[in-house]
Amino acid sequence: MPLLITFFISLWFIQGIDIGCVLIDIGYESEYHYGSDFGDSTDKSDAEDDPLLMSPSETDSLDAVDHESDSDFSLSSYSTNSNHVRRGPRPPSPEPLWLQPRELPPLELPPTSDDLLVPQPYALRVASIYEVMRRFRNLVRLSPFRIEDFCAALMCDEQSNLLTEIHMMLLKAILREEDSQATHFGPLDQKDSINISLYLMDTFTWAEILRKYLESDANFDRNVLNILTTKEYPFCGIDERLTVLQFLVDQFLITTPVRDDMLQEGPIHYDDHCRICHRLGDLLCCETCPAVFHLECVDPPLVDVPTEDWQCSICKTHKLSGVVDCVSSQEKQGILCRQEHFGFDRHGRKYWFIARRLFVENEEGTEIWYYTTVKQFERVLARLDENEFEVSLCHELNENREEIVRQMTLTESLTNQHKGGKKSYLEIENANIEKMEKESQENGRNEDTEKTEEEKMDGAESNQSTDMDIDNEFSTF
Ligand SMILES: [Zn+2]
Ligand SMILES: [Zn+2]
Fold this sequence. Notes:
Elements: H1 3-26, H2 41-49, H3 56-73, H4 123-135, H5 137-140, H6 147-155, H7 161-180, H8 191-199, H9 206-215, H10 222-230, H11 238-253, H12 256-263, E1 284-285, E2 292-293, H13 313-317, H14 329-333, E3 343-344, E4 350-354, E5 357-361, E6 368-371, H15 374-383, H16 391-399, H17 401-418, H18 425-443, H19 467-471
Antiparallel strand pairs: 1-2, 3-4, 4-5, 5-6
The protein binds zinc ion (ZN) (2 copies).
């Protein structure tokens, strides 16, 4: 009888019921739309439905429409007891602020941070690829790594172990899926030789195998194949690297394990067999991953079930600050399937909090800003209008303020730990902001007239541990 696992499953079940109402409430939001994380049409309707985004006069007119619809359709019999019953046809959604033909005072955002090593227009693309690997790292079988290291690997002219491992593990995850779907990559008599070259992939052959894989299906993006045939991949620019990685991540997101992970309710779906001996029995569950163990298989062996939360040795070694301590509570409960944005400002720019940074993306997705330090964040907040134009956005930002500040402080302290004797970019940036605040206080000047900061130290962001450091930390489960 698997005693322990029964206990844990029932516990999980109770939690499942607990969050059940939340799941029903969020309805369609819990469906995952892969590949549409950024800038899709549903987001616009979110904003349109949000009464907080409207100006007071519009809210009034909305009420008026509501009253009319009551009398027009005389639905009083339906709407006596329950507020949940929809009364008559929905009033037309008000236009979002930025689409209305009215003069809006322009909202000038503070200059973007520049601490990530990648050129700033790529920052959000990098973050979106990084987030998939962070969120599904158990399925990709990658150890956690920081976005700063990922940026360094992307910008490095040489081939780094981090970049190699990322490509190989994504490709392996895709090949596992092809295997389970019994895909043939060529004529039957060549099947074995093709499979051998695919599965015996190593750090030297992966790029060639990736090219072969791309050639196997004419429906795959020709641009990606083009990069792999014309360039000496991965010895190319960041744009090409991101295009190839985006393809791999997209392919990975449509595999069955990811789909199962999305559909599963509750935080963790535990394995059936012990990770060490692969047998059944009384199994001890890890608090943070799906692994289960016999008490005697754990190193060192246990006699009694631990009274406190217990973590397996892999999770213990994977406690990477800046990654595993920045997981949202929604994600921990298993109800977050896609990254949610905070809302829109008056120009329709979207605000995200990803990888310890506040990202802002304009409506067309052509311009990106991001803010890394608490001071930068507060400057953005100070420019938003919480009474009229950015009511809902400010509400969301203030609601999450504590967590945002905690994670941003973490970035600053991580930077300080790694910067050695040098001054970091973030310190200079903060000092600049302090100086400007002081000046504007003295002169009574409006903040908008400030000059933009020009002092930018080349590569001062020293948050990146070198790629050599990361190399050893990689392990496959
Ligand atoms: Zn065992
Ligand atoms: Zn674990």
